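Rotation project, supervised by the postdoc (A.L.). Task for the rotation student: set up a whole-complex structure prediction and record inputs and outputs verbatim in this book. Inputs entered:
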Amino acid sequence: MTLASRRSLTAYTFLALPLVFFICVRFGPMIYMTAMSFTNWGLLRRKSEFIGLENYVNVLSDPVFLKALGNTLQYAFIGAPIVIVLGLCIALLLDAIPKGKGLFRLIYVLPYITPVVAVSWVWRWMYQPPPLGVINLVLGALGLPAGEFLNSPNQALPSIMGVNVWVELGYCSTIFLAGLQTIPKELHEAARIDGATGRQVLFKVTIPLLAPITFFLTVMEGIQFLRIFTQVYNMSFQAMGGPLDSAKSAALYIYQKAFNNFEMAQAGSASIILFAIIMAVTLVQMKFLDRKVNY
Amino acid sequence: MKRNYSKPVSYVFLILLAAFMVYPLLWLLAASFKQNQDIFLDLSLVPKSWTLDGYKNGWNSNGQYSYTRFFMNTFLMVIPTVLFTIVSSFLVAYGFARFKFFGKKVFFSLMLSTLMLPNNLIVISRYLLFRDFNWLNSYKPIIIPALFATYSFFIFMIVQFLRGIPRELDEAATIDGCGSFAILWRIILPLSKSVVFSAMIFQFVWRWNDFQNVLIYIDSVSKYPLALALRMSLDITESVNWNGILAMSVLSLVPPTLIFFFAQRYFVEGVATSGLKG
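Outputs recorded:
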């Protein structure tokens, strides 16, 4: 046996078992679910028959699903960019101060490491109507009208999105800060000597060098917001997804279909639709951002 | 010139932001020491009258199971998951980072594609699969996949880190007669402390706070981890025992905070030197 083939054999021993399991647990279910989504299978039904695209037609003509899908896109396309931009700004500020980086970083990351259930309660209380909720007290003191927040069909979604931004912000700024600290200071100095202004250094040196991190965070945060579930579940009355489904996310819709109504096959087709959307979004992100990464 | 005043401004802004980030959590902490009737009326961060009732009553929960049980459950679920994740992901990452073999490109992109494929999209079929395995209402659906490196985020992270370790080290060790495992154990692993610790922090915090998976897989109260126990207290006690619930929320965030606090120095190094650098 040659050395090369022995080494490749060693690699297989590292990878073989995980790969088999990986395929079973990751891809198996995916294929199984795709197949299932074309049948009328349910947890309570014994027999299943092939019914073609009926599930897809049902799901896509369900106004609640369309609402949930729209909400999910709002969470992702508004929430994720806000987190990325704010996270970057905070990291830039933190990178510039001489003392206290570690302390600030720990404080900012606290919401991220706090259990979501606890986070949800605190914010439910903060969003309460006037005599109880602190946000409304502040608004009142400033002479502004009280907000209904979680109880209003117009405000429930932004309220929950805001909490998720608050949670993810610490994570984003921590990762950005770690990236900033790897950029050699000489690069900044060199640019300065060449006569670049602070703004030029920021946009022509720092931000381009952060491209790989920005790419990574955009993909991760995009997915994070596209699959938002726990906050919506815990912050809406009886886990229903806000008044008139106004804050319901697609992930919550799928969960309710599958585990409350036991309509597994329909939930399956809803997942496939959501999957297609996430895939499309990720591919677009890769197309746009990957080019910048290869610096 | 600009520098002279921009720093104080930065500090003011950062402190205001810190106040905003931490206020809800401080309120949580303060409320857990308040009398029940004061919680929603007393907005100050210093309780008017201190009490430990929240901690005493909250710990006993509904009487059937106390939080001793729920904490134990969480540790029983999280610790093996974290350890298995690190070991298995490291082995797989080593395989990807250091060996050439048939199909490597395909396997690697398959692995990456699952990074883009959120777990909760395959939640239904996974549920059915684990039901057929008879794993429901146990921690197996969480722990056993960790043994087989299914948390692909960590493979990705470690592969990128390992690529940064010079291959010359491996080659020198090979010449000295080390096999693949000896290289892994004696050369690579000691150099990988920071990435191992960062992966541990991430996985610990994520598993500790995970809600959706346990909601789906765990049914009986005796097996509830903290996330579900806290949610249950909310469902059954309505508004009666608020300081108990809040006190238990405070306790539940102690372990992840401690882990982060003590390992954050590795965390920054690990993140900065692994994939995120590109």
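Student's summary: Residues 2-54 of chain B form one domain.
Supervisor addendum: Residues 27 and 43 of chain B are 8 Å apart (CA to CA).
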